[in-house]
Amino acid sequence: MNNTDFTTHPSKIILTVSCQDLIKRKRFKKFEPYAVLFIVNLEEKKLNEFGRTESIEDDLSPQFTNKFIVPYTFEKLQLFRIIIFNKNEGSQKYDSKNIVGIMNFSLGEVIGTKESTITKKLIHQTKPNKERGFCTIKAEETKKKISIISFRPIGQKLDKKDFFGHSDPFLLFEKQKKGTTDEWEKVHQTEKKTNTLFPKWRIINISLSILCDEDLDLPIKISCYDWNKTTKSELIGFFITTTREILNKTDEKFYLIHPKKQRRKKSYHDSGKIKFKNIKKQEEITFLSYFKMGIEMNLVFAIDFTASNGHINSPNSLHYTDDFSLNQYQESIMKCGSILSNYCEKKKFPVFGFGARIDNNISHCFSLTGNSEQPEVEGIQEVMNIYKKVLGWKNMRLWGPTHFAPIINGVAQGIVQNTNKIKHQYFVLLFITDGEIEDFEETKKAIVYSSALPLSIVIIGVGNNSFEKMKTLDSDFVELSYRGTKAVRDIVQFVPFKESRQKGYEELARRTLEEIPRQVISYFERKKIYPPKNDQKEK
């Protein structure tokens, strides 16, 4: 779970609408079509008009000039409806009598295609099988350039805070709130480094709009804290600078000052120093620009079938199903899968289970299709169907223990074996589990190894467990390592279902998927694979 990564800059998407072979209704004396874009509000179950195009007279295949600029959020299911109307003479109002056809789509569905374009049949408002022509939606990212700054902070001779060791330092970046002199807004927090007075943190990439409101002279407060597990983090010291100063003083040290120590000791000089290395200011590479290049996303499901879920036929079981509501596993599959599947062109998803006893053999990795050679099903609804079908297998019993490593290693092995085929592919492995993992060290080893691969691991914790070990795997603040080998990227995101679901309909998907764009970018940047600067798709 990442509460302090504020580096993602929201994108704006330009939508262009065109139609082909519209069917003119007999009742229209004059034909002058135009398009209205509606936002679909699932919670309130209503349509909100976003905007409309111009009307084009006597054209059955209009290409509308007026475009729609909409905000884009990867982790949100953004649903829209386009309705093509025939213009009502002398009035700006529209009514159902003038509807030519209707098309529903999600923003992710458009962006997830190689050309960022979809074409669908327009449907009649009451007769879905009646043809009304076709509608095409094309998505483009706005051309506004976003500048980012990247640098690596390094600490020197920090004050020792821990009685039995050194310090566990991390940095907190805050910008001064506009119109104030002593109010600060948090913009970024580094991971903590363990037991050191000479920390070297990861390279930070952050947009200038987030760091300093694109004002290079806006004061920035950088504080160094000693992390404590059971008590509040303790201040080591801070300094105030500006983005311009960081850019210009590449070799200079910034002194950390602890105000209380400075007041008490006349001989006090500082509590350590911070230097910034590898400083660069550049144009931001966005998640969407990689889809322009033609990357393909792949989604893999891993579902927990351990006994701690409770007997399948008990209403208290996490695997209990009925015809009236979704259980937590089904809701997780549907909410997160529906968003991620938009970016998967093939729509074929391998679905694995773990922790079950099948034919008296305990399996930590089995295909829900029953065929290990063909573990894929087509579409999210088929994932839902096969999950429910497996619950009825007579030769299957919920068992245990909870092991993650076999599935992670299996997916990683498949990626490595197909290295030549997956230059521009990326995989998301979605675990849904109710318990703590019991192969923790092996799982850490598998994650550290997989961190160099085009893979993100998302873990949804269902039920009421505390999931302490899962939180450790989600290494936003502590670098994950196995026997001295550190993960090259943070690839794990853990979210407790119950905590997120209580905060609203969209919160589970938002928290589960929010880190994936950053993880995709970090992988391709590390491999030095960049989108073409001319915005053309790579051949």
TrEMBL record:
Keyword vocabulary terms for this entry: Repeat
UniProt entry tagged with the keyword tRNA processing: no
GO MF annotations in UniProt: calcium-dependent phospholipid binding
Any one GO CC term of the record: plasma membrane
SUPFAM superfamilies linked to this entry: C2 domain (Calcium/lipid-binding domain, CaLB) (SSF49562), vWA-like (SSF53300)
Gene3D superfamilies (UniProt xref): C2 domain (2.60.40.150)
Domain VWFA: 298-516
Domain of life: Eukaryota
Ranges of residues in domain C2: 1-120, 127-258
InterPro entries xrefs: C2_dom (IPR000008), C2_domain_sf (IPR035892), C2B_Copine (IPR037768), Copine (IPR045052), Copine_C (IPR010734), VWF_A (IPR002035), vWFA_dom_sf (IPR036465)
A GO BP entry: cellular response to calcium ion
Record family assignment: Belongs to the copine family.
Protein name: Copine-8
Organism ancestry: Eukaryota, Metamonada, Anaeramoebidae, Anaeramoeba
